[in-house]
Amino acid sequence: MSTNKKKSTPNKSLRTVDKLARLGLSTDLALALHLPMRYEDETTLTPLSEAVRMQGHTVQLEAVVSACDVQYRPRRQLVVTVEDQGVELTLRFLNFYGSQAVQMAEGKRLRIRGEMRYGFFGSEMVHPVVKTVQEGDVLPQALTPVYPAGEGLSQTLLRKAITSALTRFDFSDTLPDALRTTLQLIPFEQAIRLLHNPPADCDEYALMERTHPAWTRVKFDELLAQQLSMKRAQVARRQQGAPSLGMEGSLCRAFNAALPFALTGAQQRVLTEIRRDITASYPMQRLLQGDVGSGKTIVAALAAVQAIDNGYQAVLMAPTEILAEQHFRKIAALIEPFGVQVVWLTGSLKKREKEAARELIESGTAQLVIGTHALIQEDVLFARLGLVIVDEQHRFGVAQRLTLRNKGVDQIPHQLMMSATPIPRTLAMTYYADLEVSVIDELPPGRTPIMTRLIDQDRRDEVIERVHAAALEGKQIYWVCPLIEESEALQLQTATDTYVTLTAALPDLRIGLVHGRLKTAEKQQVMDAFASGELHLLVATTVIEVGVDVPNASLMVIEHAERFGLSQLHQLRGRVGRGSAASVCLLLYQAPLGMIAKQRLAIMRETTDGFEIARRDLEIRGPGEFLGARQSGQAMLRFANLETDQWLVEKARDLAADLLLHQKDIAEAHLARWLGSREDFLRV
Ligand code: ADP
Ligand code: MG
Fold it and tell me: Which of 248, 279, 301, 611 yields a CA-CA distance of 20 to 30 A from 567?
């Protein structure tokens, strides 16, 4: 007996185990839940005489090889002619091995699966899957599952591993029968077995569309686990201590009286929601959503003032220096007159300035702190942090937001996140764990809607003339340079070039340039010059995408709009339409446009409603992409689809609440199965 041979077996299977592990398939549970992406129907044969009329369809048939040749024109290929009852079919293989020619030698009977096409020489299939038929071969009885596979993991191997896992797996249902029946769900075991091994007479369409009751059960279980996990986090949050900031003192009153405008009804409403939250002695976790220009900043400032009134510090973090600077300027101007100490901290401050800011923060002298990512550095310590505000929260990672929240000393500060990127309700409910949502669904009075035009990039000269005319009428204009994803340097270059050409073309206009590489002071200088009306035209990269607020700007040109995502275009466009003048946004595009680009730009032209844009974006792209890499991380849900399964989300949410109240053991068992090794469904 050869010991070598014996050794090689475990080695080989170890490699398989490793490969499976790389897909996260190390347990029977994981394998059982590794469900097929699709199925192939190999249970029936179509007679060739019928198959030749099924152009464009994938069919399986059997036929005998009548000729097998290597041809050299128009390029080297293996051409096999097969025949069944006098009907012929040509099989073409452009890349092939010598062994295939042997497998398909004249006289062999083949089982062939592929897409029917009409070629120059009649019916043909290109690269069909071919198997030699042996005496006594029977057709499979079930649809053949096709699994998501990884490198070096064949379907055969996966099927074997899964089949074996299914013999060992403990299928006990996490939902008691009575409950399951009320929910009109099929048993878990039945669902899983069916999905791996659907009988031939199963509704194939429902399987593919994932509307089959077996899919419904799996999706429901997944969503239930997610909702349970969210609710549990919510309970945990309520057990944490936070400062109660309920008092509206003299500072609040003075600030309210000095507001330059009356709050809209929607602002008033969300402010009430926030005030209720920060009065509680557990930490608020609220997302303030409001379309671009709806006036979120002032609401945040009012909340900050209340925190200060209660003797706590508030911090406001923004994703860009330009935005942080603008907040600092505007908010400081409003509240410094009342003796509030506002401190500003960004990465570009000089070392000494930073140190000074840090000292003010640590000693508690700084009552309101405004800045960028620099705020989350380890050496920034707060004396009495009561409220954390994150503007344009979707620009930050989860870890960054958490770091800032953890800067409270012995209490967790309240947290207010703001975003103009609207998150549809289902997404908010599922992706954003344990989050209350407030919506400002009304714009301040006196705004006129922005008109959007699509213009071929070829007509850039006309656009320049239009810019000229607008400037002479006293309007201010943004000119946004194209996004160049591959290279920031290239993007800068383009912006600089555009600045040079526009300056040459429009010698009588005062033109500024702003981009991410400018020093902070230079950026501020340009932004100030634009804000004060000194500049007619501001050439910019996407640094102005978020938050910038210059109400007199009423014309925006965006070059190569087809390169931007919808939410980004919406954000950019939101820089205009902030004053009472009618605003125009010109989207320049490079023809020809692809299908999706066309749809996107059409949406931009048709609506200025951010929620509508987000909804349609979701339709085109699906939620994963919609959220963007920063937010979605890995896809949280593997089976459920938030667009089509909304009814299930709601059902799962209701049950989760009920289970946690009345049947904790069921909740625990269900979570144990579904959370498994995955840490959590949470995105806080
Ligand atoms: P966003 O929600 O996009 O952050 P901002 O907070 O920057 O919007 O507000 C946009 C503009 O609207 C600012 O110039 C702000 O001063 C103004 N604004 C906010 N609320 C009101 C209001 N209730 N009435 C009039 N103008 C308002
Ligand atoms: Mg804003």
Answer: 301
